[in-house]
Q: What sequence folds into this?
């Protein structure tokens, strides 16, 4: 349960004893600690059993607060640190890698926030995908950011309240580089609508030179190990001399029937590389959440990722990679703060699902929760763990 600490007060002013009352505010300390054991059938050629942090969601702690300014207007802030619970290290080499924002909120309208924060497309559309609520179901390489792989630096984000079922969000991440406005910048916009059991959403995201080596202080962190590169370590991104432009279009629909919640999602990703190479990936996602009882939920997700790859290193062919992934999960809430979970994933690489290894191409599978790619076309990962919220 979140622990709230009220911050309020008055201060004596002037020798005449007059008082000025300060506005009421609040501050919340919160966090998640998530630890699990994972067995992987093939990780770089060998099976592995590992203790891993953040199986269902990154372990974190944070503080957030709000101060009423009058007439429905409030100031707000949020600082959130991610960490590895297995060894206590910070994530991405940053003090507040997950969130660092300040902003304003107007009742009946929405919020505007400034700083390092999540992308609008993922905020609005990811909940329709399995990866949006069950991390092991993440699409290969999180190529569409539907598991919030990265954060956007130097950004301004506008998010409306839900009005008559509609909600809208848009973000712009500045390059912050003089004379190179588009070198490592990002923007996106997305909207959703909910009416009774039916909901749907759609959005678009564009990134220019997101893993730029000449601007490591841009919107996506650039190719920087000291700053904690948000972008360049994922599959597909560091190939062919870096990404010149990435575009993502995503849409999804959800429907609730009794204790069951169904979701269907589709995303299209286009990667244009600095050397002229191009990859296009499509992710089709069908998922189900079913509440058996108050504490017990079952999760199922199937994702089919397919696309094309031109000018791949080591081959002049027009390649057509394919990946199938099935994810099954069980979640049992012992209380409002503590839950136990188990998850099993199977991924099969098909077609030309290959990556360059030296001068040759090797077919591979890579489940998000496995800890590393396989040396074969298939991979199985099984996890059990505990997640505690405070």
A:
């Amino acid at each position: 349960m979140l622990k709230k600490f009220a911050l309020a007060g008055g201060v004596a002013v002037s020798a005449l004893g007059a008082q000025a009352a300060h506005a009421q505010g609040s501050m919340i300390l919160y966090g998640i600690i998530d630890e699990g054991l994972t067995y992987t059938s093939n990780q770089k050629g060998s099976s592995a059993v590992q203790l891993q942090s953040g199986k269902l969601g990154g372990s974190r702690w944070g503080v957030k607060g709000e101060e009423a300014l009058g007439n429905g207007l409030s100031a707000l802030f949020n600082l959130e640190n991610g960490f590895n619970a297995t060894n206590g290290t910070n994530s991405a080499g940053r003090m507040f890698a997950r969130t660092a924002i300040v902003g304003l909120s107007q009742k009946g309208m929405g919020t505007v926030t400034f700083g390092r924060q999540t992308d609008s497309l993922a905020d609005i559309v990811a909940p329709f995908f399995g990866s949006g609520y069950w991390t092991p179901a993440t699409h290969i390489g999180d190529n569409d950011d539907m598991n919030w792989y990265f954060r956007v630096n130097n950004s301004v984000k506008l998010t409306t309240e839900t009005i008559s079922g509609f909600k809208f969000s848009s973000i712009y991440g500045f390059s912050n580089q003089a004379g190179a406005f588009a070198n490592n910048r990002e923007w996106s916009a997305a909207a959703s609508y909910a009416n009774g059991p039916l909901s749907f959403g759609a959005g678009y995201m564009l990134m220019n030179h997101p893993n730029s080596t000449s601007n490591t202080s841009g919107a996506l962190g650039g190719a920087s190990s000291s700053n904690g590169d948000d972008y360049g370590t994922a599959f597909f991104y560091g190939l062919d001399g870096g990404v010149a432009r990435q575009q993502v279009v995503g849409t999804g629909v959800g429907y609730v029937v009794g204790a069951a919640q169904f979701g269907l999602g589709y995303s299209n990703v286009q990667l244009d590389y600095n050397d002229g190479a191009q990859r296009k990936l499509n992710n089709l996602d069908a998922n189900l959440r079913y509440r058996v009882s108050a504490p017990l939920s079952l999760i199922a997700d199937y994702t089919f990722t397919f696309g094309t790859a031109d000018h791949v290193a080591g081959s002049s062919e027009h390649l057509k990679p394919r990946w199938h992934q099935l994810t099954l999960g069980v979640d049992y809430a012992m209380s409002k703060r503590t839950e136990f979970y188990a998850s099993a994933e199977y991924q099969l690489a098909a077609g030309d699902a290959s990556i360059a290894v030296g001068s040759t191409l090797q077919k591979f599978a890579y489940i998000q929760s496995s800890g590393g790619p396989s040396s074969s076309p298939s991979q199985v990962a099984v996890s059990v763990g505990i997640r505690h919220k405070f």
Notes: The chain has one domain: 3-8+22-389. Residues 1-22 have pLDDT under 50 and may be disordered. Helices lie at 120-125.
